[in-house]
Amino acid sequence: MSGAIAIFAGGCFWCTEAVFRQVAGVSGVEAGYIGGHMANPDYKSVCSGATGHAEAIRIAYDPAVVSYAQLLDIFLATHDPTQLNRQGNDIGTQYRSAIFPADDAERAEAEAAIVRATPNWPAPIVTTIEGGDWWSAEDYHQDYWVNDGQRNPYCLATIPPKIAKLQAKFGDKLA
């Protein structure tokens, strides 16, 4: 992946990937795992909750088109950052809401984004700011919404509302 990189975990990586592929300035989105204690995790081990990893996305983007702060705002508006260790029916630490900044400047931007988003939610935001090594998910998880998700009932129930939030609140940022 080339360009600036942002890494977010907001529940199912199929759902967050589908959202960020719609954003102008995003050149790539990769599904993967981060924040755990096992090298080379796979989907089955991450889903067990035993590895400590979160399902996440790694976004390649052009900061001249969309800033890291704007990506953070989109992230915090298109999933529920008030749900601890879950998103909807997906339950477990692997579905936590987390931001993985690359450096102290990104950490400060993440903290500021959480403060900006707080008035938009009726409950406290529980999104964590973490570190960790990135592991790419298996090939069949990449571009899932485009390749398989539109035939998956879970995705059909979960992704369109997220994209609708994106379109309603960030229509000027769509590709």
Walk me through this protein's architecture.
The strands form two sheets. The chain has a six-stranded mixed β-sheet with strand order 7-6-1-3-2-8, covered by helices on one side. It contains six helices and eight strands. The chain is an alpha+beta fold. The two termini are 18 Å apart.
Helix % is 25-40%
Q: What's the number of domains? A: 1
Query: Topology as H/E string?
Result: EHEHEHEEEHEEHH
Q: In CATH terms, what is the architecture?
A: 2-Layer Sandwich
* Total helical elements: 6
Supply the helix-strand structural class. Answer: alpha+beta
> Unreliable segments (pLDDT under 50, ≥5 consecutive)?
none
Any idea what the radius of gyration is?
Answer: 15 Å
Beta-strand segment tally: 8
Mean pLDDT comes to 94
Annotated CATH homologous superfamily: Peptide methionine sulphoxide reductase MsrA
Give a quick account of the main beta sheet: strands, pairing sense, barrel closure: 6 strands, mixed
As for the CATH topology, it is Peptide Methionine Sulfoxide Reductase, Chain A
Approximate shape: globular
Strand content: 15-25%
